[in-house]
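hiii so my PI (J.) wants the whole complex modelled not just the main chain, which honestly fair. so below is everything: two entries, each one labled with what it is. i double checked the lines twice but i was tired so who knows lol
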Amino acid sequence: MADTLFLISGGIAVLALFVAAVRFFRGPTSVDRVIAFDVLTIISISLIAIIAHTAVRVIYLDVAIVYGLLSFLGVIIVAKYLERGL
Amino acid sequence: MEILPIIGGLVTLFGSLFLLLGALGIVRMPDSYNRIQTGTKATTLGTLMFLLGVGINNPVWFPKLIVLILFIIFTNPVSSHVLARSAHSIGIKLTEVTVVDKLKDTRGEEIDA
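here's the output for the full assembly
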C-alpha cells in the first residue's frame, strides 16, 4: 500500500519534470530558463529521495545534498553573471 | 497492517501534487517574476513533504533528512531572491497588469532632505 503510494507520487513527480522542461526549452529570456533549471533540480532531489527509499540505501541522500548544493551555486553564479557582476 | 507507512505515503503524494502545481505554474504564469514566485514556493513545500514522507517510512534516516530539509529551507529563497534582483536590474519587463514597482520608484528619485 505504502509502496504503491510512493510509486504514484514518483510518477506525478516525473510528470512535473516534463511540464517544467517545457518552460526550460521555450522560455523567452535566460531568467526563465534559470527558473526552470531550479525547479528541475528541486524535483530531481525529491526523486533521488524516493529512489533512496526504494533501493534502501542511505548513501543516495548524500548525493541529494551535493546535488542541491551544486544547484544553489549554479543559480547564484548565473544570476551574478546576468547582472554583469562576474 | 500498519498505519504509519501509509501516512508517509499520503504525505509524499501531497508533496508530489505540490511539485506538479509548481511546474504548471512556471508554464502558465505571465512574466518572469510570477514564475520565480510560483516556482520557488510550491516546489519548496513539495520537496519538504517528500522528504518528510520518506523520513516517516525510514525513521533511522531522520538526521540526514533534517540536514537536507534545513539546507533546502535556507538556500531556496536566497537563490530566488538573487535571481529576481538580477532580473530587475537587467530590465526584464513586468506584465501590463502590474500595479506598483517599488524598486523602480525608489531608484530614480531624489531623496528629500
